[in-house]
Amino acid sequence: MTALDSTPRTVTNSYTAGKLPSWMPWVILAGSLAITVGSSIIMGLGTGEVNWILGVIAGVALFILSNWVIALLVEGGRQATNRLITSLVSGAFVLALIPLIWLVGTVAANGMPTFLNGTFLSQSMRNVVGEGGGALHAIVGTLIITGFAALISIPIGLMTAIYLVEYGTGKLARGITFFVDVMTGIPSIVAGLATYALFALLFGEGVRMGFAGSVALSILMIPVVVRSSEEIIRLVPNELREASYALGVPKWRTIVKVVLPTSIAGITTGVMLSISRVIGETAPLLIVAGFTASMNYNPFSERMMSLPVFVYTQYVSPGTDAEFYIQRAWAGALTLIVIVALLNAIARVVSHFFSPKLGR
């Protein structure tokens, strides 16, 4: 009788053999950034300036190459190709973030001291020359002008999108789609000039008021609202509409109770995109709303300052103490970024609470 071989055998899992651990790409990325950023620091010791952006870009490029080579040696050509494409996509994302982070960091670094000085958010520029003053009149003007523009644009854009998706057929729908496409490419200065011509016919030449700025901004907002809402409404499954019709619900009520609640998250995001698109416009507001150093809460009378125009005037028309004007311009730009960030945060909250709950 043959005795059983008691020698232990090593069992190899063919699914995990020749496979890099999940943490390896992060180690490669950290090492690549350490090499390139460290090299940038060493080269910048002589001049006193470190090129962080170049170091990060070089680090991402080194990571992509190193990740591919290591995967090719360990996992083979097929998996190496998969990691190469994944690294290229991730690298493109990082490269796209660099300008954004640099922009926000630069504006915050230059504008934060004036933004937090205690007077910038609580005072206007009335009777202020040189140091002091603030942008309260511009912040109020921006909120009023943009708010009225939203009141004009959102109902018109949303109802147009509903018509194009749910009812539109024939030449009328094609004509509306064509004009929306044309309006999407209209330069902002053209919207300002057209609005000024309209209000000049109604109120006379030289008219300046906040509501005119709202009308000009609505020309730019409407096509964005229409396009974004139209695409979101088209994504609502037809099965939901057909189920509602099968229960005898009329079409208008199906739209109100089924289609819009289902697409409310995407519509809200589209509306916030349209607001972000116009809140920083300078040219149309400079033409039709003008600029002033005083508070104005009435959009239907007199000139009204806005943050983009405030930044523009502070930068191009500095007084004898140009340093304070430039500081206020940076702070105004930072205020715009903060407002847009808050609006997007509010949109996320609205989307979270009002979007349909899919879980049971």
From TrEMBL:
<dbReference type="InterPro" id="IPR051408">
    <property type="entry name" value="Phosphate_transprt_permease"/>
</dbReference>
<dbReference type="GO" id="GO:0035435">
    <property type="term" value="P:phosphate ion transmembrane transport"/>
</dbReference>
<feature type="transmembrane region" description="Helical">
    <location>
        <begin position="278"/>
        <end position="297"/>
    </location>
</feature>
<feature type="transmembrane region" description="Helical">
    <location>
        <begin position="135"/>
        <end position="164"/>
    </location>
</feature>
<feature type="transmembrane region" description="Helical">
    <location>
        <begin position="176"/>
        <end position="203"/>
    </location>
</feature>
<dbReference type="InterPro" id="IPR005672">
    <property type="entry name" value="Phosphate_PstA"/>
</dbReference>
<feature type="transmembrane region" description="Helical">
    <location>
        <begin position="23"/>
        <end position="46"/>
    </location>
</feature>
<keyword id="KW-0813">Transport</keyword>
<dbReference type="GO" id="GO:0005315">
    <property type="term" value="F:phosphate transmembrane transporter activity"/>
</dbReference>
<protein>
    <recommendedName>
        <fullName>Phosphate transport system permease protein PstA</fullName>
    </recommendedName>
</protein>
<comment type="similarity">
    <text>Belongs to the binding-protein-dependent transport system permease family. CysTW subfamily.</text>
</comment>
<keyword id="KW-1133">Transmembrane helix</keyword>
<comment type="function">
    <text>Part of the binding-protein-dependent transport system for phosphate; probably responsible for the translocation of the substrate across the membrane.</text>
</comment>
<feature type="transmembrane region" description="Helical">
    <location>
        <begin position="85"/>
        <end position="105"/>
    </location>
</feature>
<feature type="transmembrane region" description="Helical">
    <location>
        <begin position="329"/>
        <end position="350"/>
    </location>
</feature>
<keyword id="KW-0592">Phosphate transport</keyword>
<dbReference type="GO" id="GO:0005886">
    <property type="term" value="C:plasma membrane"/>
</dbReference>
<dbReference type="InterPro" id="IPR000515">
    <property type="entry name" value="MetI-like"/>
</dbReference>
<keyword id="KW-0812">Transmembrane</keyword>
<feature type="transmembrane region" description="Helical">
    <location>
        <begin position="209"/>
        <end position="226"/>
    </location>
</feature>
<dbReference type="InterPro" id="IPR035906">
    <property type="entry name" value="MetI-like_sf"/>
</dbReference>
<dbReference type="Pfam" id="PF00528">
    <property type="entry name" value="BPD_transp_1"/>
</dbReference>
<keyword id="KW-1003">Cell membrane</keyword>
<keyword id="KW-0472">Membrane</keyword>
<feature type="domain" description="ABC transmembrane type-1">
    <location>
        <begin position="139"/>
        <end position="347"/>
    </location>
</feature>
<feature type="transmembrane region" description="Helical">
    <location>
        <begin position="52"/>
        <end position="73"/>
    </location>
</feature>
